Amino acid sequence: MNGSTQQDLREPAVVALGGGHGLFATLQAVRRFTVDVTAVVTVADDGGSSGRLRAELGVIPPGDLRMALAALAADEPEVRDWTRTIQHRFGGVGALAGHSVGNLILAGLTEVLGDPVKALDEMARLLRVRGRVLPMSPIALDIEADVQGLEEDPRVSRCIRGQVAVATTPGKVRRVRLLPASPPASPDAVDAIGRADLVVLGPGSWFSSVIPHVLVPELVEALSSTEARKVLVLNLAPEPGETAGFSAERHLHVLSQHVPDFRVDYVVVDSASVPPGREREHLARAAQQFQAEVRYADVADTAAGSAHIHDPVKLAEVLVQLAGRTSALEPASGVGTDHSAAEQRENTSWQ
């Protein structure tokens, strides 16, 4: 049996980079065709429960990490209650109000075990996750942005700091930076990218969940040297705040401005979000900056009543093809159907 046939028979090793809702959607798709999946998650959140735990305990913000674990949790009766529990958010007006149970558990495990990665692995074991969830950096990071439109003179830029501030700014974000600059990457994340067959970046908040990954030098080096196929998944629509009014082409230009030599193999775009014609021609030229091929596909979850959510089944169909697999798409071993609609509503209320 030749090597290529052996590779086709094994499940591909997939690394998904991002944070929040976008990464959750990617992981829900990837888990349908492989159990060898590593989520590499942003660690710059400074709002809500995550921000409070970060400020009070000095831990890396756990919210996006918890969301990734929930996305990969086994769909088994004895695990579902645990998944719902870690996603549960306390109500009321006391000290626990607004905190997610999973955030508190991850913060506690980090203090007990002395290592955030060990804490994530332990929660993954509890949820019977097939794969791993890793922080992109072992330290908590901050996002700083240059924003225009906040002063009387629209040409004047103001520096704002914090992921929440960047994500909700009424101005136009021009550039973002990480603080500290050139932070270390999680060694296990670098290793996972090196052995991957497929690396997926996006969708998600462009300036606060996607671009931060290419601002970590060790991650960029790993992405440049890996033999994996690299896929960039564009958002279905601009996000209020940081990318309001952005076209698909603009998303690519902004990414290229932050990391000019970055290369990907494919850019996945929802067919309905970019109609045929001149806009697609512009997008194809923008993709050439990355030496990438644009792949159009129907990946929106229109049944959910919103065209701004990726459908995990449709996205999985595209990603499994780009991974070079020709077999029919089936749920990976140990992975059942999607969580219930109620659970998904809970999952997407992480903020």
What does this structure look like?
By secondary structure, the chain is α/β, with parallel strands linked by helices. It contains 15 helices and 10 strands. It has helices at 3-9, 20-30, 48-57, 63-72, 77-87, 101-113, 116-126, 163-168, 187-195, 206-210, 217-225, 248-258, 278-287, 312-322, 341-347, and strands spanning 14-18, 37-41, 132-135, 142-148, 157-161, 172-179, 198-201, 229-233, 266-270, 293-297. The chain has a 7-stranded parallel β-sheet, sandwiched between helices. Helix 9 (187-195) packs parallel to helix 11 (217-225). Residues 1-5 and 331-351 have low confidence and may be disordered.
Keywords:
single chain; 351 residues; alpha/beta; seven-stranded parallel sheet; three-stranded antiparallel sheet; globular; disordered N terminus
- Structural class estimated from helices and strands: alpha/beta
How many strands, which pairing sense, and closed or not: the largest β-sheet?
7 strands, parallel
Strand content: 15-25%
Spatial ordering of strands, largest sheet: 3-2-1-7-8-9-10
Counted beta strands: 10
Helix share, percent: 40-55%
Supply Rg: 19 Å
Quickly count the helices: 15
Q: Unreliable stretches, pLDDT < 50, 5 or more residues? A: 1-5, 331-351
Distance from first to last alpha carbon: 50 Å
Sequence of secondary-structure elements: HEHEHHHHHEEEHEHEHHEHEHEHH
Average pLDDT: 90
Given the C-alpha coordinates, what overall shape results? globular
